[in-house]
C-alpha cells in the first residue's frame, strides 16, 4: 500500500483518538495496520504477523485490547457520526447480522436462525452471535453504490441464556430503538433518514420519534392502519363517543382496490434504475 494511502487511513484513526487512552490507541494502530494487510483469516494473531510485530510484542496485550482495555465503542461511533454529519445529511440503516461461533468459553452464544441459508420450507439454525447494528451510508470513490459503515451495535442474547444468567431479556427491536435514541441524542438538530426491514418496522422502534427523522421500511400486508379523528362522533350502535382512530384499508386491501390506480416512478435499487409501481396512503 502506498504511503499516501496509509496517511489517509491514519487521518481517519485520528478522528477517534479521544475515545482511547494512549496505550490503547497505539495498539489500535498496530491492529488496524495488520487487519488491512491481512490476506487470510482476520484474527488477532494473523494481524500481528501482517503488521510485522509478531514475536516483538506479546499477543496477549492485543487480545486484552478487546476485553479489558479502556476505550468505548459507543464513543468511537459518536465521533465518526459527528464528523459525517458535518459533511451532509445522514442516511442510516438498522438491521441485525449473524456471526457464527462455537466454543464452551465464548461469551453470549446462542442458537439463532440463519436467514441467509434458510428458506420458507427449511429453517437453518446455528450457534453464534447476533448483533443489532446501526450503520450510516457512505459513498466511496471506488464503488457505484453506497457502503454501510457500522457505527453502533448491541449483542442480542436469547431468552434462554438470559434466564440462565438471571438477566432481563431484551428483544432485537428494543436494542434497535436504543441505538436510534442514542443517535438522536448525539445529533439534536437536523434531518435524518432511517431505513429498516419489516422486523424493525414496528411500534417499539417508531413510537414517539421526532418529525425530523424520516423512516423508510417494509410493512406487513395485513398491517393495521389508522388515521386520527378530526371530528367527534357517536357510535351508530351504542351511541357512545368514539375515541379510537378511524381505520384505513390494509396494504393488501389497498393493493386490490381498483378505485386507487397504481403510480409509477424510477428508483435506484441494487445499483441500477428500476421501475417501481406504488400506491400512496397517509396513515398511522
Attribute tags:
single chain, alpha+beta, 6-stranded mixed β-sheet, 24% strand
How would you describe what is shown here?
- With 284 residues, the chain is an alpha+beta fold.
- The protein has 3 domains: 71 residues; 147 residues, no CATH class; 54 residues, no CATH class.
- It is built from 9 helices and 10 strands.
- Strands 1, 2, 3, 4, 5 and 6 form a 6-stranded mixed β-sheet that branches. It has a two-stranded antiparallel sheet with strand order 7-8.
- Strand 5, helix 8 and strand 6 form a beta-alpha-beta unit.
- Helix 2 packs across helix 3.
- The protein is elongated, with a radius of gyration of 24 Å.
Q: Strands, helices and their partners?
A:
Blueprint: H1 3-15, H2 22-37, H3 44-51, H4 59-67, H5 73-85, E1 90-100, E2 110-113, E3 125-138, E4 147-156, H6 159-165, H7 172-186, E5 192-196, H8 203-206, E6 213-217, E7 225-227, E8 246-248, H9 251-256, E9 263-269, E10 272-278
Parallel strand pairs: 1-5, 5-6
Antiparallel strand pairs: 1-3, 2-3, 3-4, 7-8, 9-10
Helix pairs in contact: 2-3
Strand content: 15-25%
Oligomeric state of this protein:
single chain
Helix fraction bin:
25-40%
Structural class: alpha+beta
Instruction: Count up the domains.
Output: 3
**Cα radius of gyration in angstroms:** 24 Å
How many distinct helices? 9
Mean pLDDT score: 88
Q: What ranges have pLDDT less than 50 throughout 5 or more consecutive residues?
A: none
Give the overall silhouette.
Answer: elongated
Amino acid at each position: 500500500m502506498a504511503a499516501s494511502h496509509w496517511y489517509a487511513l491514519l487521518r481517519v484513526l485520528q478522528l477517534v483518538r479521544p475515545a482511547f487512552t494512549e496505550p490503547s490507541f497505539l495498539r489500535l494502530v498496530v491492529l488496524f495496520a495488520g487487519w488491512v494487510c491481512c490476506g487470510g483469516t482476520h484474527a488477532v494473531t494473523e494481524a500481528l504477523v501482517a503488521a510485522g510485530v509478531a514475536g516483538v510484542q506479546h499477543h496477549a496485550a492485543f487480545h486484552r485490547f478487546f476485553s479489558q482495555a479502556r476505550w468505548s465503542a459507543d464513543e468511537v461511533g459518536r465521533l465518526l457520526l459527528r464528523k459525517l454529519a458535518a459533511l451532509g445529511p445522514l442516511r442510516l440503516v438498522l438491521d441485525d447480522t449473524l456471526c457464527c461461533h462455537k466454543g464452551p468459553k465464548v461469551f453470549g452464544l446462542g442458537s439463532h436462525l440463519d436467514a441467509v441459508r434458510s428458506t420458507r420450507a427449511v429453517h437453518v439454525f446455528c450457534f453464534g452471535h447476533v448483533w443489532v447494528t446501526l450503520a450510516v451510508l457512505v459513498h466511496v470513490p471506488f464503488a457505484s453504490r453506497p457502503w454501510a459503515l457500522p457505527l453502533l451495535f448491541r449483542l442480542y442474547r436469547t431468552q434462554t441464556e438470559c434466564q440462565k444468567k438471571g438477566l432481563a431479556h431484551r428483544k432485537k427491536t428494543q436494542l434497535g430503538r436504543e441505538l436510534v435514541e442514542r443517535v438522536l441524542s448525539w445529533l439534536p438538530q437536523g434531518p435524518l433518514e432511517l431505513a429498516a426491514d419489516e422486523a424493525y418496522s414496528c411500534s417499539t422502534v417508531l413510537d414517539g420519534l421526532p418529525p425530523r427523522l424520516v423512516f423508510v421500511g417494509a410493512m406487513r400486508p395485513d398491517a393495521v392502519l389508522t388515521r386520527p379523528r378530526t371530528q367527534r362522533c357517536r357510535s351508530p350502535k351504542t351511541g357512545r363517543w368514539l375515541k379510537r382512530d378511524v381505520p384505513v384499508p390494509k396494504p393488501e386491501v389497498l393493493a386490490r382496490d381498483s378505485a386507487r390506480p397504481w403510480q409509477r416512478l424510477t428508483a435506484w435499487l441494487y445499483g441500477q434504475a428500476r421501475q417501481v409501481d406504488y400506491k400512496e396512503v397517509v396513515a398511522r
